[in-house]
Amino acid sequence: MDNYELVAAALSKITNTQVITYNEYLSQKETNPDQTFQYFDCNLLHEIYLVKGVVSSNVIDVEENDDAIVSSSNAEAEVSTNDFEKVFIALSGETLEIKNLNANTTISQLKNKIFESKGIVPNDQWLTIQNVFIKNISGKTLTVKNLNAKTSINQLKNRIYETEGIPPNEQYLNYGLKSLQDHQTLSFYEITNDTTINLSTRLRGGASKSIGVLDRDFLDPHYDYDFTNIKSSGRTYMRGNYKYVRPYGWNRIAIRVLDKYSDNRWLGVNNRTKFSDSVEGEWIVSFHGTAKNNANSIARDGFLLSKGNRFQYGRGVYSTPDIDTAACYAEKFEYGGVNYQVVFQNRVKPGTFDVVSSESGLKIFISRNDKNIRPYGICIRKL
């Protein structure tokens, strides 16, 4: 069975919009040239389809790490990043090559490397951005020129509108796994000269005639684990220093998230001495039902459990550490004449969510800020 086709069928049901594989897209774009397509990647999944609802949650502190570029008139450099292994710094009369970089290298680290080579202190460096490339799903690339580090995403969208005629509120800009928010700047996302940003029109469940196309790198088969025919041995597993109940009876399909954020500590992929133990910096595992309009809603039940507390009301994402609980709220879909059920598997940042529970043992996590919950797997089982 092709997991891409299975996941496409599941997402089609969840979004109430057709989602196809990339191979299907290649076939359809030739026979149906007037059809509008857009990428459906993990970030779009996170932004739109995590079920949110009213919550009773007090203030949860969120730490933001903004490594913004500092402007100075003492030194100027044009940054060109053709890949993440090296960049070329255009100084007055010479070009400096900086090697041994990676996708997680920050602007501050880059400035330190320039200081080591040329002796220009970081606070006296002004790194400017001249061009970025905007690539749509059809492969067309637009070059947007004369930008700078403080250019906002909204300003970039307006530049795209001037050329392509796509209204800013219909543009979906994605760099890596990050959705580019209008109020942020290019420097906030570490976007430098010659960076390629993906553009698609927004896909809203049932509200768009666009067909969603699964990015070829949407899944990460190396980390798939089929628990369909596996039963619990009674062994206790910990993730983020919290008990992890493995999804026995489900086929766990991995979403490609490795190296998509500032680091991989949240996944616990390094320094695990025992597979059953937690590692430092690891986030807790939770599961998320996908039926948004189901009367049997995890958001409704979580709110009812929590509203007796004396908290301010807001919005939040509901999930649970128990996949059997999540299954009560999960979407059902059909593929190849067989009925299935689908649940998202997430990581939740410790210390950023409230826990509510019932006398029957129902336990629900309430994440007030959706930056603190990240889908990293899709669990599917036959019914």
The gyration radius over C-alpha positions equals 23 Å
Number of DSSP strand runs: 24
Tally of contiguous helical segments: 7
Proportion in β-strands:
25-35%
N-C termini distance: 16 Å
How does the major sheet shape up?
Answer: 6 strands, antiparallel
Q: What's the mean pLDDT score?
A: 76
**Shape call:** globular
Give the structural class.
alpha+beta
Which consecutive residue ranges, at least 5 long each, have pLDDT under 50?
A: 51-84, 293-300, 302-314
> Based on the structure, what is the oligomeric state of the protein chains?
single chain
How much helix, percentage-wise, in residues? 10-25%
Description of the structure:
By secondary structure, this protein is of the alpha+beta class. The chain has a domain at 47-63 and 216-382. The protein has helices spanning 3-15, 22-31, 42-49, 107-118, 153-164, 298-306, 323-327; strands spanning 19-20, 37-40, 52-56, 75-80, 86-91, 94-99, 125-128, 131-136, 141-145, 171-175, 178-179, 195-201, 211-214, 225-226, 237-239, 242-244, 251-254, 284-289, 313-319, 331-335, 338-348, 353-357, 363-367, 373-382. The chain is globular and about 65 Å long. This is 3703_t:CDS:1. InterPro entries: Ubiquitin-like_dom, Ubiquitin-like_domsf, Ubiquitin_dom.
Write the layout of secondary structure elements.
Elements: H1 3-15, E1 19-20, H2 22-31, E2 37-40, H3 42-49, E3 52-56, E4 75-80, E5 86-91, E6 94-99, H4 107-118, E7 125-128, E8 131-136, E9 141-145, H5 153-164, E10 171-175, E11 178-179, E12 195-201, E13 211-214, E14 225-226, E15 237-239, E16 242-244, E17 251-254, E18 284-289, H6 298-306, E19 313-319, H7 323-327, E20 331-335, E21 338-348, E22 353-357, E23 363-367, E24 373-382
Parallel strand pairs: 1-13, 2-13, 4-7, 8-12
Antiparallel strand pairs: 3-19, 4-5, 5-6, 8-9, 10-11, 10-12, 14-17, 15-16, 17-24, 18-21, 19-23, 20-21, 21-24, 22-23
Domain Ubiquitin-like: 130-206
InterPro entries: Ubiquitin-like_dom (IPR000626), Ubiquitin-like_domsf (IPR029071), Ubiquitin_dom (IPR019956)
Pfam family, one: ubiquitin
